Amino acid sequence: MRSICVAHETPHWHENTMSDEMRFIYTPLEAARREVWKRWNDRKLKERIDAMFQKGWPDFFRDIPKAVLARNIASPNMELIHFFDLAESAALPPLVLEYTEDRFTPKNQEKYFLGKLFFYGGRGRKGGQKLSACRVIDFNGAHGKKLSQIQTRKGESLPLFHHRILSHILPGAEKSVVDMSSWVLANGKTASTFYARYLSFFICHGILFENFILQYEEEAFTREVVLPAILQLESLLGVKPLIVPLCPFANENDPYWKYYPEETEKVVSASKENDGFSISFGEPSSAREKGSFSESDNGHGPRHLGVSSQKGLFEVGL
């Protein structure tokens, strides 16, 4: 897997900047890498997990521990490219879990940036971001539809569109993508009852790379769903799920992570037909595009498997 170098200053996080909740949730990468193999070889621990969570255990977790990222649709933005680099550092095969049966709303930051792509070309002479953008879907027509049912303005399935550009930017990465929709629907729709089962994947079968936000609307989900699920698993099994921060805490809400490498624009532009897509240039024009989502927009909200739009992922009517 080749890496793509992009110009961006990523601040480091330090232990003394972490709250007690953050220390409880996360495990440093190197420690998690060692621990996952220790637990993988603990036959009794794996048997206890299998006995507790037998319903619909995915086969792809059975062969070898995985580095895992969960998003609605796998797309080659800065965040996903960074994840593949972290998976390589962990010496684990990457696995991207999708939930394409979720419903689209432009008020959700994760989904908004699936419908309008921003291509990052570094910074200009005056320090401003060099960005161009492309709206690939009709936002009004897509609102409320399942992601799997949405077509681009050229008539291509939205998930297939993102997978296609993924295969161009990170050749072979599309083989690491699995749609978890059927598993999700078979295992419940409320995060409060579902999440312990989901996080049990990361006791000994893999490492979850994620940032659970302790501010904005996502704070309630972290405190009311994530933390209790981790406590439940620790109480039952004696160990916590292995969760490593995906992005540095200092800029985890930076919209940069949703931008695309500049070369992605060439892939999208090369496939333009009949003015299906149009490319615009310049700085982000709205608060949403700059990352300054208001709470009413739910913009800082949920990006990971577990929350979506204005409700928990498994609380949305399907």
Précis, in short:
By secondary structure, this protein is of the alpha/beta class. It has 13 helices and eleven strands. The strands form three sheets. A five-stranded parallel beta sheet has the order 5-2-1-6-7. A four-stranded mixed beta sheet has the order 8-3-4-9.
List keywords for this structure.
disordered C terminus, 36% helix, five-stranded parallel beta sheet, alpha/beta, 13 helices, 318 residues
What does it look like?
It is globular, with a radius of gyration of 19 Å. The protein has one domain (24-309). The chain starts with 19 loop residues before the first helix and ends in a 6-residue tail after the last strand. The strands form three sheets. The protein has a five-stranded parallel sheet. A hairpin with a 5-residue loop joins strand 3 and strand 4 (129-135). Helix 9 crosses helix 11 (218-237). The protein is α/β, with parallel strands linked by helices and 318 residues long. The protein contains 13 helices and eleven strands. It has helices at residues 20-25, 29-40, 43-52, 78-89, 109-115, 139-142, 158-169, 181-186, 191-199, 201-204, 218-237, 262-270, 287-290, and strands at 66-70, 94-98, 116-123, 129-135, 177-179, 206-209, 243-244, 260-261, 279-281, 307-308, 311-312. It is 36% helix and 14% strand.
Write the layout of secondary structure elements.
Blueprint: H1 20-25, H2 29-40, H3 43-52, E1 66-70, H4 78-89, E2 94-98, H5 109-115, E3 116-123, E4 129-135, H6 139-142, H7 158-169, E5 177-179, H8 181-186, H9 191-199, H10 201-204, E6 206-209, H11 218-237, E7 243-244, E8 260-261, H12 262-270, E9 279-281, H13 287-290, E10 307-308, E11 311-312
Helix pairs in contact: 9-11
